[in-house]
Amino acid sequence: MNAVFLERAASLETPLREAAPLAPRTSWRIGGPARWLCEPPRSEFPLWVRVARETRIPWRVLGRGSNVLIDDAGLPGLTLSTARMTGLRREGDFLEVEGGAPLSRLVREAADLGWTGYEFLAGIPGSVGGAIVMNAGTSLRPEEQIAFLLCEAEVMDRRGELRWVSPEALDPGCRTSAARRKGWVVLRARLRKPGEGSPAEIRRRISERLESRRRRQPLERPSAGSVFKNPPGGRPAWSYIREAGLAGCRVGDAQVSERHANWILNMGRATAAEVRTLIARIQEAVAERFGVRLEREVVFLPQDESGA
Ligand SMILES: Cc1cc2nc3c(=O)[nH]c(=O)nc-3n(C[C@H](O)[C@H](O)[C@H](O)COP(=O)(O)OP(=O)(O)OC[C@H]3O[C@@H](n4cnc5c(N)ncnc54)[C@H](O)[C@@H]3O)c2cc1C
After folding, report:
1. Which domain holds residue 41?
2. pTM
3. Each residue of 231-284: pLDDT tens digit?
């Protein structure tokens, strides 16, 4: 199968890289290499998926790697990075953005145009596609989740078929969506203009948000931001972890942050196995002490994959 895959892959324009390091492509700086890595432009994504599917090679997509824990053994099969899919253009009252575009660029662009409503995304280090599948945001208030900005998205299903879907079809939830459950890839999105304001005032609000993040969040070490979702109707996840006495708890080089107990920091050479052990320890301790099940927000690759 591998030989057939490689033969067909050679007919596509973008080259494949073998045994490509992935840790530098993640915010945690953890994980082994990709068996094959490819960074195609948007137009080639369906071709790669069809080749992988027809030759039975497992595949997945990687955005900016800010919400994933990649296994120490690396990833089998094909990893499609969205790093070259970063186009962004204005079309009247919409912004059309490719799935790999960094959120930081989207926030800047909206501010330059004098569009309000994008400020909450400032400081989230992901891509537009990663944010849509995770329904990224800063609270559970609708206007602070990316689904609020979305008019429609072009998705590719597991067979490589493309279609534009409505926000309802994406069924955005708490740091998840139907796109994530179904393994759809977000290739493009059309985002709306929620309101208008002066660019200088919008930039001031963005700076305030970034400053507040710097104060509250342990940004000095590699991490994936919040590891767990906040349990429904309850207190924030960090408060359970802190009260269970786990702030500062360490397994190898993976450590629960003292400042924000829902973050696990890579203190040097942490491994995925160490992070997983720490995550399991937190879940056990919080369940035992409070009867609360903490659900993971970060995605384990390849363990959480929905199949090729
Ligand atoms: C310091 C820090 C702060 C953070 N703060 C926040 C925050 O305030 N709010 C918040 O919600 N999150 C936050 N995060 C988490 C993360 O940035 C977001 O979830 C982000 O949207 C993930 O995007 P990504 O491109 O990095 O996705 P990745 O980590 O690359 O991937 C995450 C998942 O999405 C899938 N995926 C990626 N791109 C696509 C695509 N185009 N189509 C389909 N699937 C895709 C991957 O296969 C994987 O399953 C933070 C992370 C860090 C490190």
Report:
1. 2-81
2. 0.96
3. 987 799 999 999 999 999 999 999 999 999 999 999 999 999 999 999 999 999
* Closest listed residue to residue 156, CA positions, set 199, 186, 136: 186
Q: Estimate the crossing angle of helix 45-54 against helix 2-9, to 10 degrees.
A: 160
Identify whether 249 is part of a domain.
yes
Ligand 1: distance of its center to the CA of 218 in Å? 18
- From CA 108, how far away is CA 98, in angstroms rounded? 15
189 and 225 belong to one structural domain = no
The residue among 198, 213, 228 that closes a domain is 213
Domain stop point among 180, 213, 246:
213
- Is 141 tagged catalytic? no
Mutate to test the pocket of ligand 1, among 49, 66, 257 (most ligand atoms within 8 A of CB): 66
- Which residue minimizes the CA distance to atom 45 of ligand 1? 130
What is the per-residue pLDDT across 116-147, written as a single tens digit (0 to 9) for each?
999 999 999 999 999 999 999 998 788 999 99
The ligand 1 site (C-beta within 6 Å) comprises 27, 60-68, 82, 99, 124-127, 129-131, 133-134, 136-138, 175, 185-186, 219, 223-225, 299
Query: Is 297 one of the annotated active-site residues of the chain?
Result: yes
pLDDT at 308: 42
Q: Model confidence over 151-203: pLDDT tens digits?
A: 999 999 999 999 999 999 988 888 888 888 899 999 999 999 999 999 999 99
Q: What integer pLDDT is reported at residue 232 of this predicted model?
A: 86
Q: Of 127, 226, 257, 274, which is the active-site residue?
A: 226
Residues 188 and 157 in one domain: yes
- Give the active site residue among 175, 180, 188, 276: 175
